[in-house]
Each structure stands twice: as structure tokens, then as C-alpha cells.
Amino acid sequence: MACARWLCLTFPVLLAACGGAAKSQPDANASESQGSRLSKARASMDQRVRDAVLAKLRDPDSAKFRNVRKLGMLGEGVPDSPAVYCGEVNAKNAMGGYPGFVHFAVMPLGEDGETSTGKDPVSITDENDPASALAYMSFCQNEKGRDQAGQPVKF
Fold first, then answer.
1. Which run of H or of E encompasses 106?
2. Please, which of 122, 127, 136, 152 could form a disulfide with 103 given CB 3.0 to 4.6 Å?
3. Where are the domains of the chain?
4. Residue 75 pLDDT more than 50?
């Protein structure tokens, strides 16, 4: 019986303590740090870049990405340099087969999903379009023709 009284007396106190903790938690989440806002902005940009590449494909649902990385357009160590995204994509063609991975480069995107010049920001290497290969070589490879490492991006 004494155990039951003890439980009746302590249970409301425990409930109140848990309720107070639950109320203070949203306040901690509401005051977001600048670092977490920046990481959300980066994730948002990563998603916009992914969507821009997918929009260029015949079958975007079948897309597979690899070796995606983000490089500073103005070079290493330049603060606030716009980013160029480089990588490889493979998606089904008109015949329903995977033709193989091809390089892509995405120039810096604005809020509207375009570059500052308003031109198409996505360049997917196409054997019929030499300029697409040139875009990849210009931004994604070093002077020896090797792919630059950059910051890895997970699509």
C-alpha cells in the first residue's frame, strides 16, 4: 500500500518534469545556428543541381550518378567561389538500355535554376556536341586532363 501511495505522489511529479522538457525542446530547435542553415542551403543547391541534370535525360527515373563532386569555379582556396558540379550519369535511352556513364558539368545555378547569363547551366557530354566535352574539360579536369577531386556530393 505504501508503494502505491509513493507511486501516486511521484507519478505527477515525473509527468510534470517530462512535460517541461518537451516544452523547452522546440525553443532549442527554433534557434537554428548559422551552420545548419548553410548546410540546408547546400543540400538545397545539391538537389537543384540533381534536378537540372535529370531534366536533360530521356528517362530521369532510371538515372544513376557516380563521382559527383563540387569544385570552386575560381579555384581552391577562393572564399565564396561559385561552385561547379561535375560527375557522371547513366540513364536509359530510347531503346530502354543503359548506354554507359557520361560526364556532366553544371555551372552555378541561381534561385531560378539558371546561370547568371540565363543560358542552360547543364552540359552533358554528347559525342555530337563538342562544346559539351569542352565544358567538362574546362571546369572539371586539371591541366593534365585528370578529374579534379573537389568536395564529394551524394545525390
1. strand 102-106
2. 136
3. 41-148
4. yes
